[in-house]
Design brief:
7-stranded antiparallel β-sheet, 2 domains, Rossmann fold, alpha/beta, 7-stranded mixed β-sheet, binds flavin-adenine dinucleotide, binds FE2/S2 (inorganic) cluster, 24% helix, Elongation Factor Tu (Ef-tu), domain 3
């Protein structure tokens, strides 16, 4: 009980209001919003924040970038009510912020493979900026259905030093890069090179495939999961997977933890009413 109350009374959980300072269109459905928030500017790669859209809803978003000058960026995909209203917002309009929440990725390994899809590339890009300083080999596979949905690939290319690092785009329709899923080139990378760490974020079916390959090749992995989130501090239970609350114990989970929740990971999640529903390919 005391742990629960102490999570409530933290500086991170206090709602702050701020103004949108910058908006950039990344793709037909994704915009990057930048605002100032000194608390979330302390975020580590893989942590998330709760963005309050006044009068509408509060939604979880991964931190895309957190700068020393207090600027924080998030990449928002338009999927429903809150994200559509966010997409219509103009520079200068007010939003609310809580966070940063969750554990974030641990910075491990010198030979690293990163696999991301959709807005899952946002926390992976943030991670890549930190890993680029220490890794000796870094491969980033970024997947999408089609060229127009490929996200942040050029930012990734600018971040990674070309000599020891590689960015591969994959599209399901073959309109850009390798034709297939983000997991398509993995088998041959894993068979031909040694890696000591895999990081992944994106659609859960993709992450499950990456996890299965990591298990097959015996490589350590961290995956960042999404579940419905309301409180973001471990109180409401809407984000459960197995014995874990994704907001508090994750969103980043190790392969050891994912083995415990194998019956749910990539298979089922809870809906807004707490019912178990299948995770489907969308
Ligand atoms: C840890 C975490 C990090 C995320 N990072 C990003 C990100 O960087 N960029 C991004 O575009 N999206 C991210 N999402 C997903 C984002 O939260 C949802 O797309 C958003 O909440 C949809 O809100 P809506 O009102 O527009 O859509 P709605 O019409 O309310 O819902 C559309 C779908 O969005 C999902 N969703 C809705 N509400 C929530 C909620 N409270 N928690 C989780 N999922 C929800 C559900 O799958 C739902 O079916 C993240 C989610 C989590 C849990
Ligand atoms: S969102 Fe409430 S417990 Fe995780």
């Amino acid at each position: 009980m005391w742990r629960k109350l102490s999570a409530y009374h933290t500086a991170a959980n206090k709602l702050r209001t701020t103004r949108i300072l910058k908006i950039r269109t990344e793709s037909p459905t994704v915009k990057t919003l930048t605002f100032e928030d000194n608390q979330c500017a302390k975020a580590r790669p893989g942590q998330f924040l709760m963005l309050w859209v006044p009068g509408v809803d509060e939604i979880p978003l991964s931190v895309l970038d957190a700068e020393e000058n207090g600027l924080v960026s998030v990449a928002v995909k338009e999927v429903g009510e809150a994200t559509t209203i966010l997409h219509d917002k103009k520079v200068g309009e007010v939003v609310g912020v809580r966070g940063p929440f969750g554990n974030g990725f641990t910075l491990k390994g010198e030979r690293v493979l990163m696999v991301s899809g959709g807005t899952g590339t946002a926390p992976i890009l943030f991670l890549a900026k930190e890993l680029a300083i220490r890794a000796t080999r870094l491969i980033s596979v970024v997947g999408a259905k089609t060229r127009g949905e490929l996200l942040l690939v050029n930012n990734m290319r600018r971040t990674l030093d070309k000599k020891k690092m590689l960015v591969i785009a994959t599209t399901e329709d073959g309109s850009c890069g390798v034709k297939g899923f983000a997991t398509t080139p993995l088998q041959s990378f894993l068979a031909n090179e040694k890696f000591d760490m895999i990081y992944t974020c994106g659609p859960e079916l993709m992450m499950r495939k990456v996890f299965d390959l990591a298990e097959k090749f015996g490589i350590a992995l961290e995956a960042s999961l999404e579940r419905l989130m309301r409180c973001a501090i471990g109180l409401c239970g809407s984000c459960v997977i197995g014995r874990y609350r994704v907001c508090r114990d994750g969103p980043v989970f190790t392969a050891e933890q994912l083995r415990e929740v194998k019956a749910e990971f990539g298979i089922s999640k809870r809906d807004f009413d707490g019912r178990k529903i299948s995770i489907e390919y969308v």
